[in-house]
Amino acid sequence: MIPRLAGKQPKLFAPTRKGMRALAAQVKASRPETIVVASPHNLRLDRHIGIVLSENSTGRVTEGKNLIELSAKCDVDFGRRVLREAEGLNLPVVGANYGALEGPASDLAMDWGTIVPLWFFLHENRLKSSILIVTPSRGIPLEQNFEFGKVVGHIAEAGTKRVAFVASADQAHAHKKDGPYGFSREAAAYDKKVVEAMKGNRLSSVMKMEPAFVEAAKPDSLWQLSMLAGVLEVVPMEGRLLSYQVPTYYGMICAGYSLPARTSIRRSS
Question: Which end of the chain offers a freer environment for a tag, N or C, measured as fewer CB atoms within 10 Å?
Fold first, then answer.
């Protein structure tokens, strides 16, 4: 998706790249001071949602001899408010730091599920927004990830900062027989349900899918989408599907949510 890493296959992810750049334009227009990224590939905490409280996050991704690197300041104050409110609701959350307690050495690695969207939103836009990385959990009920999203929405809505929420993930991973997860008919069915939920502005409907169906489709997205659905429960926004493709063995969707045009846009997700 990132041209610098595409090598000899720049066209393979072209629809998703176009979708990401459309999202980046939306992010740039909304000028967020903080971008909350829900990623499936950062902290994998057993039955707990992680909230990264490091002062910094730095990441790198390589593809052959090509390399991208990105660093961002973390919004620790916003993260601590999310942590306190979620704890008050008895949600299974953990605050996490790495290295030093504070300062430049307080730096938790930025995973690929974080750096890829931020490459478009921060690097290509030349924005200096702070970030907050949160990590959904697959070991707790979906409803708790949803409730956590509501916490993020409430704090963003009550504050004065412009906040964007990014649910980062690929969709079903079982589209190809020769892929690492094999083929399952449920993969296409799962992606279709997500696309329809986005088109119909009823994202929370994805939470009704049966666990066995989800396991067969092997998505990375359901838990982050549940958080986003929680945000939308508090801050109703209009969705727009920008792209969908199956470039290899997994599906990829770009969709943007923003406040109705009649409202002064303070936040987008």
Answer: N
> Which of 29, 30, 27, 41 shows the shortest CA–CA distance to 133?
41
pLDDT tens readout for residues 149-184: 999 999 999 999 999 999 999 999 999 999 999 999
Quote the CA–CA distance of 167 and 226 in Å, as a whole number.
9
Domains and CATH numbers, the chain: 15-170+221-256 (3.40.830.10)
What is the H or E stretch that residue 63 is in?
strand 56-63
The closest of 67, 163, 191, 168 to 113, measured between CA atoms, is 168
Q: Which residues contact 27 (CB under 8 A, 6 or more apart)?
A: 35, 121, 125, 127, 164, 268
Contact between residue 184 and residue 174 where contact means Cβ atoms under 8 Å apart: yes
Distance CA 178, CA 154 (A): 44
Distance CA 188, CA 155 (A): 36
Q: Which residues contact 25 (CB under 8 A, 6 or more apart)?
A: none
The pair of three-digit structure tokens given for residue 192, joined into one six-digit string: 């279709």
Q: State pLDDT tens for residues 222-236.
A: 999 999 999 999 999
